[in-house]
Design goal:
By secondary structure, this protein is an alpha+beta fold. It is built from ten helices and 14 strands. The chain has helices at 84-95, 118-134, 140-150, 154-159, 193-204, 216-224, 227-231, 239-245, 249-258, 280-293, and strands spanning 4-5, 17-34, 40-59, 65-70, 98-99, 102-107, 162-166, 171-174, 180-186, 235-236, 263-266, 273-277, 298-304, 310-312. Strands 2, 3, 4, 6, 7, 8, 10 and 14 form an eight-stranded mixed β-sheet that branches. The protein has a four-stranded antiparallel β-sheet with strand order 11-12-9-13. It is globular, with a radius of gyration of 19 Å. It binds cytidine-5'-monophosphate. Residues 38-40, 42, 151-153, 168-169, 193-194, 197 line the site of cytidine-5'-monophosphate (C5P).
């Protein structure tokens, strides 16, 4: 394999590329039984929401692959090769016979280890940024393949919008969706996704776990942009497991519902909690009440769906 460095002299390459990438909330997370490979089949209805990380790729000296991070959660982000942004650069470079010489800077605004796919978002953004920086010209199909290799949620971070993820979440079908408004309550500390799935297995041991299926009523409410109807259908099968590991989240869910949220649920594997609200005014009110309740670390408001990873002018 050639080890020609990914220099900006390659045809179609750029000096610096920044990609903006959104967080996600799962409006339905139906979880099946553990598979022989340890993963769980899912019916995972993703919605991309307007909290963003920005990943900037700039050329680095031969043999150098570095990651830096700024933003409110920067101190919680691993900067080694375990970071999905670094792994994305390595996978793309390996496929194209390049050396992954790049500096990746993550401007992080998506909560870390919060169930909002922040790490996955950085993987998808870094992939797109390196593809443009190195002029590799990977097809959309190839990018999606690399995303699936990086993690179950990474393909969705690339495509954004609203989508149904099946398999372990990586096989995506785009869904029509109106705009919905959300409040997110950030918890003290994080939850490990594998630990939450293990707790799901423990809690469901000895009981039959049905095959996961998308809810027709939920998909209809999503397409209609009807928050009241969506509120009645939101479901996260990982919620009992997340609450078992982080019982304090129950008080956060209650505080948001008491303040006027239409519905409340744990976001993905948690511990971020998500509150569906009818409009931005109610979002501000619910966010204030959640902060005053002392049951969370901070709140963020957002709307979705929004587009997936997108290059932005620098
Ligand atoms: O795919 P990803 O690396 O993000 O998954 C992290 C962990 O979450 C997996 O190692 C597995 O423990 C769990 N997981 C799962 N079933 C899925 C997705 C993730 O059990 N469909």
């Amino acid at each position: 394999m050639s080890t020609a460095p990914g220099t900006p002299e390659a045809p179609g390459a750029a000096r610096q590329v920044t990609v903006r990438v959104p967080a996600k909330v799962n409006v339905q997370l139906a979880v099946g039984a553990a598979r022989p490979d340890g993963f769980h089949d899912l019916a995972n209805v993703f919605l991309a929401v307007s909290l963003y990380d920005r990943v900037t790729a700039t050329p680095a000296a031969p043999g150098e692959l570095t990651v830096t991070c700024s933003g409110p959660y920067a101190d919680q982000v691993p900067l080694d090769r375990g970071n999905l942004a670094a792994r994305a650069a390595e996978l793309l470079a390996a496929r194209h016979g390049l050396s992954p010489d790049v500096h990746l800077h993550i401007d992080k605004d998506i909560p870390v280890a919060g169930g909002m796919a922040g790490g996955s978002a950085d993987g998808a953004a870094a992939l797109l940024a390196c593809d443009a920086l190195w002029g590799t010209g990977a097809s959309r199909e190839e990018l999606l393949e690399i995303c699936a290799e990086l993690g179950s949620d990474v393909p969705f971070s690339l495509v954004g919008g609203a989508a149904l993820g099946t398999g372990r979440g990586e096989h995506l079908t785009a869904l029509p969706a109106g705009t919905f408004h959300w409040v997110f309550a950030l918890a003290h500390g994080g939850l490990s996704t594998p630990a939450v799935f293990r707790e799901f297995d423990r809690l469901t041991e000895g009981t039959p776990v049905p095959a996961p299926e998308a809810s027709p009523a939920l998909l209809a409410a999503l397409a209609a942009g009807d928050p009241e109807a969506l509120a009645g259908t939101l479901v996260n099968d990982l919620q009992p497991a997340a609450l078992s590991l982080a019982p304090g989240l129950a008080a956060t869910l209650d505080a948001g519902l008491g303040a006027g949220a239409l519905a409340a649920l744990v976001s993905g594997s948690g511990p971020t909690t998500a509150f569906l609200v009818p409009d931005p005014e109610t979002a501000a009110k619910v966010a204030d009440a959640l902060e005053a309740s002392g049951t969370c670390r901070a709140t963020r408001t957002a709307h979705g769906p929004v587009p997936g990873a997108t290059p932005v002018p620098t």
